[in-house]
Write a structure and sequence with these properties.
- This protein is of the alpha+beta class.
- It has one domain (about 5-75): 2-Layer Sandwich (Alpha-Beta Plaits).
- It is about 35% helix and about 35% strand.
- It has 2 helices and 4 strands, in the order βαββαβ.
- It has helices spanning about 15-25, 55-65; strands at about 5-10, 30-40, 40-50, 75.
- Strands 2-3-1-4 form a 4-stranded antiparallel beta sheet, covered by helices on one side.
- Strand 2 (about 30-40) and strand 3 form a beta hairpin.
């Protein structure tokens, strides 16, 4: 990730990432699921973005937190 994204969650079970992404979509938020591997383990990140301006990032983060994802935060990598 080169641009500012909002990470909604990181999951060790792909179905959990997919359920989260679907809930976001049903509420008007367009997520991306990134499959990654670290230290031999596979995981899935649910991110939203890129959000180029500070106001975009704040609005998206507010919406995601209102949906119950209170641990969401900004990431660039």
């Amino acid at each position: 990730l080169e641009k500012p994204f909002i990470q909604v969650g990181i999951f060790s079970i792909e179905d959990n990432a997919r359920r989260t992404a679907e809930l976001l979509r049903r509420n008007g938020v367009v997520p991306t699921i990134l499959a990654q591997r670290s230290q031999g383990k596979r995981f899935w990140r649910v991110v939203i973005g890129p959000a180029m301006t500070a106001s975009d990032r704040a609005a998206i983060l507010r919406k995601v937190r209102e949906l119950g994802f209170t641990d969401a935060y900004f990431v660039t990598d």
